[in-house]
Amino acid sequence: MTTRLFGEPVARREDPRLLTGQGRYLDDLGRDALAAAFVRSPHAHARIRDIDVGPALDVPGLVAIYTWEDLPERVGRALPLLIPHPALTHGRTAYPLARHVVRHVGEPVVMVVAADRYTAEDACALIEVDYEPLKPVVGLEEAVQGAQLVHDDVPGNVGAHLVQEVAAADGRGAREAIETAPHTLAFRLDIERSASMPLEGRGVYARWDGHDLRVYSSTQTSTSVRMAVAAALGLPLPQVEVIAPDVGGGFGVKIVHPWPEEILIPWAAMTLGRELKWSEDRREHFISSAHERGQVQYVRAGFDDDGRVLGLDVTILHDHGAYTPYGIIVPIVTSTQLLGPYKLGAYRVEFSAVYTNTVQVTPYRGAGRPQGVFCMERTMDKIARYLGKDRTEVRAVNLIQPEEFPYDQRMTFQDGRPLIYDSGNYPEMLRMIKELIGWDDFVRAPGRGIGIGCYVEGTGVGPYEGGHVQVTSDGRVHVSTGLTSQGQGHETAFAQIAATELGVPIERISVVTGDTRRFGYAVGTFASRAAVVSGNAIALACRKVREKALRIAAGALEADPSDLQITDGVVHVVGAPTASIPLSTVAVLANPLRYAFDEETAKATQFSGTASPDRPPVAEGEEPGLEGRDYYSPIRSTFAAGMHAAVVETDPDTAEIRIVRYAVVHDCGRLINPMIVEGQIHGGVAQGVGGALYERMVYDSHGQLVNASFMDFLMPYATEVPHIETAHLETPSPLNPLGIKGAGEAGVIPVSAVIASAIEDAEGIAIDRMPISPSELFGLRTAHAR
Ligand code: MCN
After folding, report:
1. Which superkingdom, per the lineage (predicted)?
2. ipTM above 0.95?
């Protein structure tokens, strides 16, 4: 048995359970609970004149009906704006149930509680809501004209406007640098809306026992849901527990806290004194959760004869939908991460976050980065085309060099800290991706093209995560951390960290995430942060436990702690393997209330039975038990990076687009588990293929989402996702003890840029939109031929 597991492709320990149907998802719980269903707005914009619940009251099995008027003040308040920003001058959030006005199709208006979901839905259908339809605002350009307003008090529908500018070394601003540059380009990019679409929707189940409230939620942030629920319901924090059971994907949409249902279901469960559950259906997910990506970008670039970017000026219209629960994090990420692995002369970015009568926008895997990378990589390709140069050559002259780290982009990152890249080797990465895809030997032909895309990703944002590690007298190690898991493989990766730090076989290690009973202080799983922040916290907690174990063992073995080592769960004197003591025994010795798990340990600890009456006092400065807790709080983000390349073929007649090859070089610092990282990259690339070729939310002029089902919203199947060739580069982060950078979002970030680059190469036509369908490509061909 090896315990040096950090960096090994250990098979995911959670998979046998999940693959054999033993996962426990939200809807597996509370089978006897009452069910909730919601009446949701059929209008994109309307005033509520009246709600008549009368016709539903006689439905057999109905338990309760609530409108906004029925909610107590604390529960009915507008939902919190989670990340305020000075530029967000007109932030707006929804009420848990609509109060007077609805601002998008799908906004919850009435909650119905009944014996089962069928009855609740039947009752919903009988409730009559009298709406006065208002003209909806759909489409970014229409919205900024401001003729109709989504919120009466937000002029021009602009919730936030921000300009960020980094001057050139000679002090010139981006616009001046562009004007005086030898060459300039200007173009517009259109990026459509998409959404996270986890296969398991959101869901909440609550139980109130008269004193304590237990809430299960399919969430990415159980600790934050707990705080929000406690505050809304006026309960002390210790009386509320929130547990994320197995979560069938999140991809960002389950970070929002609280969702209206996360407040309403616990409140109604408490009010009624009954168990209550709500599980989102697919249509609800389309129209009542969150979307992302939608942006229009106007780009101007000035460059020299080598393709060096002297100035870049980007103006972004960001479609925020009806509300800003998560602040303006998405356009801020676009603005900062757009810079990629490059050093530009001068840079100016300006964005307006614009309200429309559509589903609100919150981060979806990549969170603004795919849009930023699309912008920068399209710029690089266009410069190369303009100058008649190889596209990798233009990238090469703009790359930050290895000796330039730490590299300060002189901007403020999304977490308010300086945008400083900690480490990397971008030229080596470019060499690797060219070799992997065979760039220099590629044989170009009509309808066959090759493309490339590069990105950096700030990962591991703070403020903190914690880890708790306990060794019990059976020699097992119990690790817990507060953030939740949605399929990332934390159970395996965190066990690998603990096994390596403690010298214990991985089989003896269990990991619990997302359960506030086990760990109450945490931030959550998003922004590719779990490995960096929780991973390091767990390592630090393990180091505390290890130190204590060695101290206790040193006493028992009459040795110096510095001469001791732990291997396969046994502490022994270096060079004298027979002078040893198992960790199970050390765990017994660590607790004066001595209880040995078995006779053998009892004998080893010289007790007469499994429980000993001998109760020595706890030594000063010690705590009973072999356990430790620690927190890790990063000073700033660590920057992962990657470069992808693809070969595509386009059909000359149908304009069908086929990805023939896809290659990835990725650097997330030291790898905990290369197999998990590859899995994360594959999943991300699959979502990226969706964003590049298929996925879009289609709204009509009335603000109706016309493709709100899996019949109409196209996603790639396995048949559309190519085999993905992956290579790793490991430049450890100097910022954290384990040298890790995040990996969870990387795969999705550059895919649209890479595919556009390859299609453009195959067709000789500018591809300035994502996604691009065969019919759109056909249209471009026709226009080009004219
Ligand atoms: N890892 C590693 N070595 C590294 C970095 C990471 O072995 N140097 C491993 C980690 O231990 C972890 C996985 O890779 O098991 C992802 O780690 P990390 O980059 O820290 O990302 P998070 O765990 O914080 O996950 C969040 C990220 C995001 S932001 C989205 S969105 C996303 C994603 O992960 N949603 C997912 N991957 C997902 N995967 C699944 N199956 N489902 C989702 O909803």
Report:
1. Bacteria
2. yes
